[in-house]
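Supplementary Methods, section 5.1.

A reviewer requested that the exact input to the structure prediction be made available. We therefore reproduce it here, unchanged from the version used in the analyses.
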Amino acid sequence: MNILLPLHTSNYFHLFHGNLFYCVKQYLQKDPSLITVVIKSLLKLWPVSCTVKEIFFINQIGNILETISEEQFVELMEPLFHKIGECITSNSFQVSECSMLLWKSDRFVQMITIHADKIFPIICPYLYKTGTNHWNPAIKNLAVSVIRICMTTAKPVFEAFSKTMKAQEQSELEKLRNEKKDWSMIIQSASVIDNEFNVNAKNEEL
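The structure derived from this sequence is encoded token-by-token as follows.
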């Protein structure tokens, strides 16, 4: 593994990624305890601004998760789902799509359902952001479909999380209203002190 894992950083990774993953998989079949080491290394070596390489990494992790134990999953789920979430919100529709297609795996969905109370607070905000703001309509629809899977597989947990999210949104809106109100009071006070006070003019001077 000390030789195989660093090869994921090679500029020629796309030429041998299939053979490399085959070798890694052979090691994991002989010693499943290495799964944690491999996934942690992949998260650490994750490519930046390389769509093709990111897709290879996502697919590789998806394959490894098919054989992961629940104990290993629990150890990895927080950093793993933050990374999956980042991929979901990627501007590259291919990376976003590939990451959400992980939900096609029954094993993947099963593990998420078991630990929904921990995973939903991590992954749902990413899905919500993509479902409402992504530039690609197909990706927006796919995000909505994944949210629907979350709703149906762990409905009580999802509903509880949704209530929390709505309460947070309401709190943020109230905070914005208060900030706007405070700013208006400051403007009024300044106007009383200086009748010639002009916000735009002051901004231009700055």
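The radius of gyration is 23 Å. These observations are discussed further in the main text.
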